[in-house]
Design brief:
This protein is α+β, with helices and mostly antiparallel strands. The protein folds into two domains: 94 residues, DNA polymerase, domain 1; 133 residues, 3-Layer(aba) Sandwich (Cytidine Deaminase, domain 2), CATH 3.40.140. Helices cover 42% and strands 14% of the residues. It has nine helices and five strands; from the N terminus they run H-H-H-H-H-H-H-E-E-H-E-H-E-E. The protein has a five-stranded mixed sheet, sandwiched between helices. Helix 2 packs across helix 3.
Length: 238
């Protein structure tokens, strides 16, 4: 790994800290944000170069967040103290997410459901099916991961979905899964599963409110999710 430019050697307008202060955190790449946490590299390696190396090595921030201190220390430019700093930052992010869940947000629109689960689903490379369990006021009880499939298909049995809903004393639920391709358009299998689960919920008096499919935003597609209820599939589920 090459040394790369040290942050102090960059023009002030290109330094991550100065850019964050002037343009906001969304203007920075993950590797830039990591460089801010590291402040400086060690062993003569730039913090910017270390950030790029970590992103390249682990592929996603989710994978990086799961790395142990010994794992992180295997990357040139990271010693024990810098590994501890990264671990602390990721732990704070997880604690913040738990706090948001404990506040029991009201999830009465597909947009709010997408906002809740977008980041958690972003790293998944295969389809992952989840049930968002809600109380009578449409407030979050918890999110249950039901099953995991392949790149373009997933198997879901009503028994697993409603067993967890009954155990949580849920009054209603929202179905959620991701499309790793980035296109949230529902497949025929998605539509069939949705209708099967709506019917099962009617028998058990647990309302299935929606099925939200998460994808990725593009220039042609301003929303990174779709709602099967908004598409009209719930009207013909009976």
């Amino acid at each position: 790994m090459s040394r790369g430019l040290l942050i102090r050697e960059l023009p002030e307008s290109e330094r991550p800290r100065e850019r964050l202060a002037a343009q906001g955190p969304d203007s920075l790449k993950p590797s830039d944000l990591i460089a801010i946490l590291l402040r400086t590299g060690t062993q003569g390696v730039s913090a910017l170069r270390v950030g790029e190396e970590l992103i390249q090595k682990y592929g996603t921030l989710d994978n990086l967040s799961r790395a142990t201190i010994p794992d992180l220390c295997q990357t040139k430019g990271i010693g024990r103290d810098k590994a501890v700093t990264l671990l602390a930052a990721f732990t704070l992010a997880r604690l913040m997410a738990k706090e948001m869940w404990r506040e029991s947000p009201t999830l009465d629109t597909p947009e709010r459901v997408a906002d809740l689960l977008r980041e958690a689903n972003r790293p998944y490379e295969v389809e992952c099916f989840q049930a968002v369990l809600l109380n009578t006021r449409r407030r979050l009880i918890r999110v249950e991961r039901i099953s995991q499939g392949t790149l373009d298909t997933i198997l879901v049995h009503p028994r697993e979905v409603f067993r967890l809903a009954i155990a949580a004393n849920a009054a209603a639920l929202v179905l959620v899964h991701n499309h790793p391709s980035g296109d949230p358009t529902p497949s025929e299998a998605d539509i069939k599963v949705t209708r099967d689960l709506i019917r099962a919920g009617q028998l058990l008096k647990i309302e299935v409110l929606d099925h939200v499919i998460l994808g990725r935003q593009t220039q042609e597609r301003p929303k990174d999710y779709i709602s099967l209820r908004e598409l009209g599939y719930f009207c013909t589920a009976g």
